[in-house]
Write a structure and sequence with these properties.
It is built from 16 helices and nine strands. 47% of the residues are buried. With 412 residues, the protein is an alpha/beta fold. Helix 6 packs parallel to helix 7 (152-165) and helix 8 runs parallel beside helix 9. Bound molecules: zinc ion. Zinc ion binds at residues 13, 175, 202, 204, 238-239.
Length: 412
């Protein structure tokens, strides 16, 4: 039976969101948490965007060191040869790419305004796939932007051309959140059967159906005989109303009436990391987790009314579909209420050594401590807020990589 995988796109769609962003160190930590959670692939950045170059190169280095493994790191570019050339010129070690191009009449006419027709779209995309292969790309996904508003016959033609050019997956983008679970199931099942490639399901929440559409689309792919790769973001952060939330999508696939036990996950998902990654994304984006967020919201396991409280005390299964410990909740978190020494942009060596000492980190020499402190200062300048323990530990453990992440010199 075909399987369902996860490709998290927080470091691409998430950071593209208006008014939000992540520092390069935060993006790196997010890749590490996604790896711990068992996500198949992280769409980790934009290889043709100059300020991403050092970040992408540093993360590829972490992959080579085995720190970011087994997760795949995949870059997002437009499906044109020029972008492929630029990406590999700057980052020759890139291994995985998704190439994106618009396929709907609305976007072909509305964005290219007569400069490109349906034939040009297919030929641009196939040329880009072939160029990426020539440069040594190990896996290539092809993204049909606005697939949900694209005629199915053209989408099939586009997908078949992608397969013949050597693509490994076809991404069905419900770019505007226009689909419903019934339409996306039918469209993706037909694509799986007729294109004969694994299908990526990329959904947005403009009509409040991102998670529902994602699992329906994945079901369509599997029922059509192909693996599904659901695109998610942490806490659903993404363009406009956002993307399918990672934790909610995992819960929907593993706990819901018609899917639990009937469809198989392709990745070794460790849901006990859910709490940590959701809290981290909330901190890093500076966006609170909604109180009623599935699994990780403040109220996800809160009961107050008489009948519910009584019922859940007698047997949690009376009013809970799954337990809080499964999501890594229930461990007390320490909040400092007394004297607090922090590490920041203007910290000195004494305070910094105290902070690191509390985490059982000691330095071989005063010089080493000073070097790490300098990096911590820069990292704090970049993120505009105090670093969390994992960031301090990362800098102390991988100072050279941290330095690369923090180097934001404009390229020519
Ligand atoms: Zn999107």
């Amino acid at each position: 039976m075909p399987k369902i995988h996860f490709i998290d796109v927080t470091n691409r769609d998430g950071v593209q969101t208006a008014k939000l962003g992540l520092s390069k160190l935060e993006k790196t930590l997010l890749n590490m948490y996604l790896n711990e959670l068992g996500v198949f692939q992280s769409e980790f950045g934009f290889p043709t965007t100059k300020h991403e170059t050092n970040y992408i190169s540093a993360n590829l280095e972490l992959a080579r060191l085995g720190v970011l493994a087994p997760i795949r790191l995949e870059g997002w570019i437009r499906a044109i040869v020029a972008d492929v050339e630029t990406a590999f010129k700057r980052l020759p070690d890139l291994k995985h790419l998704n190439l994106s191009i618009s396929t709907s009449d609305q976007m072909i006419n509305g964005k290219f305004e007569g400069r490109k027709d349906h034939f040009d779209i297919v030929s641009d995309m196939t040329a880009a796939v072939e160029a990426a292969r020539q440069h040594g790309a190990e896996s290539i996904g092809v993204n049909a932007e606005d697939a949900s508003r694209t005629k199915l016959e053209y989408l099939i033609e586009f997908g078949r051309a992608a397969r013949e050019a050597g693509a490994d997956r076809l991404r069905y983008c419900d770019t505007l959140g226009y689909d419903d679970p019934f339409t996306i199931y039918d469209a993706i099942k037909a694509l799986a059967q007729k294109v004969e490639l694994p299908i990526e399901v990329h959904c947005h929440g403009d009509l409040g159906m991102a998670v529902a559409n994602s699992v329906a689309g994945a079901k369509g792919a599997v029922d059509g005989g192909q693996d599904a790769y659901i695109n998610t973001t942490v806490n659903g952060i993404g363009e406009r109303a956002g993307n399918a939330d990672l934790v909610a999508t995992i819960l929907a696939l593993t706990k819901s009436k018609g899917l639990a036990g009937k469809y198989e996950l392709g990745d070794n998902i460790d849901l006990s990391r859910a709490w940590k990654i959701a809290k981290f994304a909330s901190y890093a984006f500076d966006v609170p987790i909604p109180i009623n967020q599935p699994g990780v919201g403040d109220n996800a396991f809160a009961h107050e009314s008489g009948i519910h409280a009584d019922g859940v005390l007698k047997d949690p299964q009376n009013y809970e579909l799954y337990g809080f410990r499964e999501l890594g909740r229930g461990v007390p978190e320490i909040v400092e209420t007394g004297r607090e020494i922090g590490a920041g942009e203007y910290s000195g060596i004494s305070g910094f050594s105290h902070v690191m000492g509390k985490m059982a980190v000691s330095f071989a020499s005063k010089q080493e401590a000073n070097e790490i402190l300098e990096l911590v200062r820069y990292a704090t300048v970049e993120s505009h807020k105090p670093l969390i323990e994992d960031q301090l530990l990362f800098i102390a453990k991988y100072p050279k990589i941290a330095k690369k992440l923090l180097t934001l010199t404009p390229l020519e």
